[in-house]
Each structure stands twice: as structure tokens, then as C-alpha cells.
Please model this.
Amino acid sequence: MTCQNMSPEWTFLADTVMGGRSEGRIDAVTDGGNLATRLTGRVSLENNGGFIQMASDLGGGGRPFDASGFTGVAFDARGNGESYQVGLRTTDLTRPWQSYRTSFDARKEWQRINLPFDVFEPNRTEAPFNPARLRRIGILAIGREFDADVMIANLCLLR
Model:
């Protein structure tokens, strides 16, 4: 299995865009020899909230990235033992809440997470996943009240 390294430019997003009360941030860190991006914060369900995330547009400028020659995504992760979600978006999705998602546990030690595209499930969409139209990847702390702390490094696409 080979891996094409990606150089994501992560941005922070939270439920505050819809009136939620979750708080957080992202920071560039070095941990255990890994250059990583760290997502930290508090997920709150108050005022119909419930998420914080770090996301990266893969094609740049909202354009799709053709991932049809790849089988999935992989990255190194370390965190606080909580469960997080990975969300993929394609240019076929028109609503911000639509995505294709799967979960992973962020253990306290660094681990390699390999996620084939076929483990991602549609979230609030009927559109089939089309890797040729991949636009964005996100790491989400979502759905329950908890303290988020997860680091992501070495994001790549699997062949």
C-alpha cells in the first residue's frame, strides 16, 4: 500500500456559525517527532450546537480533487482517548451538514489510521460518494458534550 502525502491547510470551524456554543482552536505543534495540527476545545450541545472541526479543502478554492485513483485516506493520530469522526465532502454536496463520515478513536499514543473510502457512510445525503469529486476533509469532534484534544499528522491518500 502506497500513500501520496497531502499538505493540508487546516482551518477551524465550529457550530457557532449556526448559533451553537462550542469553543475550540487549532494549533501547529511538534509532538513525538511529528509535525501535527492539534484540535482542542469543548463541544457543547447548548443552543442546538454540537461540533468543532478542522477542515482542509483538498483541491483549493473549492475545486474538486480527483481521488479516483486512490482507495482511501490515512493519517497519524494521537489524542485524549475520545472518538472523533472524519468527514469527506464532494462537490456533489450542496448543504453544509452533508458529508460522508466514519469514526476513529484517538489513543494516547501515536497510531496510524487507515480508512478505505468504503467505510465512509453518507450523512444526511442520498448522493453516492464520488472520489473524483472530492473537495474537503474534516476531523470532527461532534455529537456529544466533551473536551476534544486530537492531533493529526502525515495525512495522505492511499493507493
